[in-house]
Design brief:
Helix content is 85%, strand content 0%. By secondary structure, the protein is mainly alpha-helical.
């Protein structure tokens, strides 16, 4: 029974990691779309465009950091804790909650930025 629980537990973790990676890839594509929109705009408001480009670059950096955190989390979830005093599930669940929160915050920030850019560029 315990072995089946572990199998299900790690299967769910694996699914969540794949889901995060897919979401991050989608967000990466969306950021490239936003960059193209800003490059193609013919608005005379240069300072606003520059500010939006800077925010887009900042989001790209945050996205890269999130991708690295997901990879790190994936390695953590696959780690062998046999000789450790740390409860692996507790550590993994703590990291999982932290990463979920960061991803959620990023998605909110991204959605707000995307809305502003699309509104500004008239798309």
């Amino acid at each position: 029974m315990n072995q089946n629980y572990d199998k299900d537990y790690y299967s769910n973790l694996s699914y969540e990691i794949r889901s995060w990676k897919s979401s991050l890839k989608h967000l990466e594509n969306e950021l490239m779309f936003i960059e193209r929109q800003l490059e193609q705009t013919d608005s005379p408001a240069v300072s606003i465009i520059l500010a939006m480009k800077k925010r887009t670059n900042s989001l790209k950096n945050l996205l890269q950091n999130l991708k690295l955190e997901v990879i790190s989390y994936e390695h953590l979830s696959e780690s062998d804790f046999k000789n450790s005093s740390i409860d692996p599930k507790e550590l993994i669940e703590e990291e999982q909650m932290d990463l979920s929160k960061k991803l959620e915050e990023f998605q909110k920030s991204f959605k707000f930025h995307k809305t502003r850019v699309l509104h500004f560029t008239g798309r």
